[in-house]
Amino acid sequence: MTQTTLVEAQEPPPAAETGALARYFQLGARGTDVRTEVLAGVTTFLTMAYIVLVNPAILGSAGMPVAAVAAATCFAAAFASILMGLVANTPLALAPGMGLNAYFSYTVVQQMGVPWQVALGCVFISGVAFLVLTATGVRQLIVASIPQYLFAAVAGGIGLFIGFIGLKDAEIVVANPATFVALGDLKAPGAALALFGLVVIGALSVWKVRGAMLIGIVATAIVGWLAGQVKIDPQPYSLSALTGTALQLDLKGVFGLGGSHGLGLLEILFVFLFVDLFDNIGTLVAVTKRAGLMDSAGRIPRLNRILFTDATATIVGSMAGTSTVTSYVESAAGVQAGGRTGLTAVVTGVLFLLTMFVAPCAQLIPLAATAPALIIVGGLMLLPLTEVEWEDPLSAIPAFLTVAMIPLTFSIANGLAFGITAHAALKLVRGTVVKGDWFLLLLAALFVVRFAWMGGA
Known about the structure:
This protein has about 450 residues and is mainly alpha-helical. Helix content is about 65%, strand content about 5%. The chain has 19 helices and 4 strands. The strands form 2 sheets. It has a two-stranded antiparallel ribbon with strand order 1-4. The longest helix is centred in the middle third of the chain and has 29 residues, at about 260-290.
C-alpha cells in the first residue's frame, strides 16, 4: 500500500496569470477562474447557512444569549473561512461544528453542570493544544500514519454521511423506533420540494451546466417561497449583541474545577480534542482528494498552514463566544461546483461576514433546498472507494468499518478510529508490523482506551 509521508505535496509553479486574484490564488495552475470560484463559494455558503440558526438554538439551551451566539457564529465562520482561503489557499470552509456544539450544551453545561463561560474556556484550551500538537508535528504524524486506502475509505464514508444528512434534512429518510430509519412521507411538502430540487440539480449536472448546484438550490428555494414553505420568525438582533459572549470565557474557572468535575475536565478537553482533530483530518482528506489537490502519494499541499489555521479558528471562535470551530463536510458541495482554491473559502467567509448584519434572514434558505445538493455530492464522493483493494481483507475490513461507521455513528472521528484500529489489529495478527508503524499502533491503543473510558461519548 502507498503510505503518506510527512513531506507536503509540492504545488505546481504558478502560471503566467493576469490579475491579482488569479496570481495570489493560482487560479490558472489549478484550472479554474474567478467566476467558478465565486459560484463555488456561494454554493458552499448556502449548504452551510443553516448553522447560523441551528448553533444559537443549541447553545442557547445552555443559557447563552441567542442573539450573541448568532453573531459569534457568523463571525467565527467568516474569520476561519477567510483565513483558510488566504493562508492555506484551500477550498475548505469552517464554522462551529455540529455535534461538538451539542456536546458543549447538553453534556458539558446541562448534564455536568459546568457554566458556559467555563466551557468556552475549555474550547480555548483545546485550541491552544491543537496549536501545540501542530507545532510539534504530532498532527502531521497522525496524517502520515493513516494508510492511503483509508483516505479513500474516509472520502467514501463522508460521501455517505453527506448524502444521509441530505436525505434526513429533506425528510426523505426519517427516524423509526422499530427499524431506526425508514422512508418518510414523500408527499409531505418538505420531501416533495427536496425531490424537485434533486431532479433540477441532477438534470443540470447531466447537461453539464456550470453552477448546477447553485442554480438548483436557488430554484428550489424560490419554489419553496412561492409554496409558502419558508416561515420567517425574526428575533431581536443587532451586531452589538456579540458583546454578550465575546471574551466571556472563564479560564480561571477551567483550572478551578474541583470535586466531581476533576476528571470531568479531562474528559471535556479530551472529547473536544479527539472529535475536532479527527473530524478535521477526515474532512481535509475528503475535500482535498475530491478537489484533486492531493497527490498520488497522499500528500496534501500546505498541510501545516491548514492545520495552524484550524487551530487558530478554534481559539478565536471561543473568544467570540461559540463552541469548537471545525472544517465542514459541506465544503465538498463547493468543490463539486468547481472550487479548487482558497478563493472559494474566502467567498464563503465574506458571505458569513455579511450575514452578521442580517443573521435571522438565514431562514430564507430552507433545508429542503440545500438537501438535494448534499445528496448528489454525497453520491459523487463515492468514486475513491474504487481505490480500495476489496479482495484483500487487510484493507477491505478496515475500509468497510470506516465507510460504515462514519454515517451510522454520525461521526467522522469514530469512523477513522474504527478504521485505524482495525488496520493496526490486523497487521499485528498478520505479523506484518514494521518499525515505522509505531505511531499507528500508538493511535490504535489510544482509540481503544478512549472507547473503553467514555464509551460512545
